[in-house]
Amino acid sequence: MTPPIEEMVRLRPEVAGTLAPDGSYHLLSWPHSTCLGRLTADQHALLRRLGQESVPLGELRTHPGFFTQLELLRTGGWLHVTVAAAGRKVYTVEPERSQEPHQGEPPGRLTLSRFAIARRDGGEVVVESPLSWCRVRLHERRAVVLLAADRPVDDDPALVRLRQDLWAAGLAVPEDDEAAGPPERLWQPHELWFHHRSRTRLPGVPYGKGDWTAGVFAPPGARREPFGGEIVELARSDPGRRYAAEPRLTEVLEERRSIRGHDDGAPLTAAGLGEFLHRCAGNRGIYRIDGVQHVSRPYPAGGAMHELEIYPVVRKVSGLEPGLYHYDPQDHRLERLSGTTPQVRRLLRAGAMAAATVQEPQVLLVIAARFGRVMSGYQAMAYSLVMKHVGVLYQTMYLVATAMGLAPCALGDGDGGAFAAATGLDPLEEGAVGEFALGSRYAEVRP
User: Fold this and answer.
1) What is the rounded CA–CA span in Å between residue 61 and residue 43?
2) 276-280: long-range contacts (C-beta < 8 A, 24 or more apart)?
3) Would you say residue 4 has pLDDT above 90?
4) Does residue 211 have a pLDDT over 80?
5) Alpha carbon distance 303, 209 (integer Å)
6) Whether 20 contacts 33, CB under 8 Å
7) At 240, is the pLDDT very low, low, confident or very high (cuts 50, 70, 90)?
8) φ and ψ of 219, to 5 deg
9) Does the N-terminal peptide bond of residue 31 adopt cis geometry, omega within 30 degrees of 0?
């Protein structure tokens, strides 16, 4: 005989309670709160118990006054709800916001939403989606099998209930769901996940700046270790000599354009490249706060961590040998990593293809991120910060190049595999996140 299911509830672990001056009790979980009014001593005791353990719903029904409050907490997304059978937990519904369940019975044939993922979390499996109001944590193997197998569940009340809850959560959808129209069809799953996780504080999910690595490992230093290659000193910019003759900021903004063609008859010079790099990304100083190194550069960065590194891939620059270099923003110099290897050729070719032109750029600036600089302090939103930093660096490069009369073009694509092979870097530790083509401008080209 199949055992009946039992439902248990408890407060979300991160929920805090506070007593207001008027005697009313409030639950808090950033950025939300709810007022439970004045509670009796018995109700206070029940609430404390719900904060410590899962309590059978049948037991709570013996407290009618509190049971009404409980239903409000449940629909408001303040409670974890666990379904058990024969004393064993089968799955738990973990709300991320107020309940927004689908109404009615689920259709005959369901499949996982294309936005849903099932991932391992310790010894359990969590099913979640950026479109759902909750996560569903699967504790038993039979619940996991339900995700992958189209099998009858009528003989198992726990799985029948799980199927209904997956439908109510929007994690399972009708098999013909692909016929749905915009706006959902306009989103790719990975893009919606990135948008959701980098912009939303979720219950139980660390978010924002913190010290979660304290005592575990230190963030990488502000300066990356040198590669041991040949050093090329670069010319620095001279504000007194150069800037006075340049157009005003408003003119530069109006003139800024993407220019894909470069004048190989009068190529960019090493001095020009040096001035450009110094004005865009040269370190203005390194300082410590609570033992962590921070950096000041011409463009902004979250937490002043400045994880971005620039690797010039040189095809044709007067005064520089072709090949792959790393820019040292502290000492303002280049370190030569290699000549024009097959991997370097791939990078230049990818740059030309991304710019939709036959001509390879005179210089392809590969922007790489030392991810640990940001990820050691920020959680959930770290990669989003990296992308923002690439954007502000792009704009800085555009404005400086325009003021200097050069040909700039930010690229939307690159060859990360070729970069990893050319540098020997672990792409999870330091990987390419952007590319920018730079060269001399044809005299007849006007913005």
Assistant:
1) 13
2) 276/397, 276/400, 276/401, 276/404, 276/406, 276/438, 277/234, 277/310, 277/312, 277/327, 277/329, 277/332, 278/234, 278/236, 278/237, 278/332, 279/237, 279/400, 280/393, 280/396, 280/397, 280/400
3) no
4) no
5) 8
6) no
7) low
8) -65, 155
9) yes
CA distance 417 to 88: 47
Q: Which of 36-40, 77-81, 174-178, 253-257 has the lowest mean pLDDT?
A: 174-178
16 in Cβ contact with 28 (< 8 Å): yes
CA distance 252 to 400: 9
183 upstream amide cis, omega within 30 of 0: yes
In 10 A of CB 251, how many CB atoms?
13
Amino acid identity for residue 431 in this structure: G
Q: Please check whether residue 51 is in contact with residue 73, taking contact to mean a CB–CB distance below 8 angstroms.
A: no
Provide the pairing of β-strand 230-233 with 333-338: antiparallel
| Cα(90)–Cα(109) distance, integer angstroms | 22
Secondary structure (H, E, C), 174-199: ECCHHHCCCCHHHCCHHHHHHHHHHH
User: What is the tally of helices (H) and strands (E) in the chain?
Assistant: 13, 23
Contact 205, 97 (CB under 8 A): no
Amino acid type, 164 = Q
- Which residues, 6 or more positions from 2, have their beta carbon under 8 angstroms from its beta carbon? 85, 155, 156, 157
Residue 359 DSSP label: S
Torsion, Cα of 168, 173, 177, 182 (10° steps) = 50
CA distances 152 to 50, 158, 160, 171, Å, are: 35, 12, 9, 19
Distance CA 435, CA 348 (A): 10
Residue 262: which of 302, 212, 317, 216 has the closest Cα? 317
CA–CA distances in Å: residue 248 to residues 252, 253, 298 = 6, 9, 17
Structure confidence at residue 61 (pLDDT): 85
Per-residue pLDDT tens for 217-233?
Answer: 777 889 999 999 999 99
Report the C-alpha gap between 351 and 354 in whole angstroms: 5
Cα separation, 320 vs 441, in Å, equals 18
